[in-house]
């Protein structure tokens, strides 16, 4: 399969081609029509921080190459809130290999981050939106307050104050609920040991975590389209004030 390129930096495009093979990228231009290009030949669109939204609205998965910092997350949020199926590649120091591209451009995203961010569209702004985006991306394991604050380019006290002023749960509560979503997404994607994709050591540990933070064990969520059901309730559950701890999740 080939990929469409909305990468604006020639050196990055060349680096990608070195990793996946020459001739696998086709530059994407304004007014390109996917059907006339033979859209079935393309697995996705590779884009960077400067890619324009109209170029990305072709119905293909978008692999966004941005660093995991405040500006990168904001670009991710802009694309996700447009309803585009965007997948993040933030490992800028590592080559984007064929194996990585196949995982990132599959029918179902490896991560629910874009679905979570799109669901929260328009509810929050500024630092709060940055924090929730960071949590949606990073809730693959336990995360510290310092880690979330560093990614957002803010101090822990600023993050704590922003969440409090917005009436939201502490970082521990936010990450805990996002980890539930990541685990259910992995389960519905058919992944082996799906609980490990949200940083849980065992199935029992995940079920106990779900019971504590959603009020229901894993069995209930498996029986009722769990990810979407929990996602629909995430707005209200994020507003519940939890006791903040130094280590989240």
Structure notes:
By secondary structure, the chain is of the alpha/beta class. It folds into two domains: 2-110; 118-237, Arc Repressor Mutant, subunit A (Orthogonal Bundle). It has helices at residues 10-20, 53-56, 70-81, 98-104, 113-119, 126-138, 145-151, 156-165, 171-188, 203-214, 218-222, 226-237; strands at residues 2-6, 25-27, 42-48, 62-65, 86-89. Strands 2-1-3-4-5 form a five-stranded parallel beta sheet, sandwiched between helices. It is globular and about 50 Å long. The termini are far apart.
Keywords for this structure?
249 residues, alpha/beta, Arc Repressor Mutant, subunit A, 2 domains, five-stranded parallel beta sheet, 9% strand, disordered C terminus
Question: What's a quick, concise take on this entry?
Answer:
Helices cover 47% and strands 9% of the residues. The protein is built from 12 helices and 5 strands.
| Strand line-up of the largest beta sheet | 2-1-3-4-5
What is the count of β-strands?
A: 5
Give the rounded overall mean pLDDT.
89
Largest sheet: 5 strands, parallel
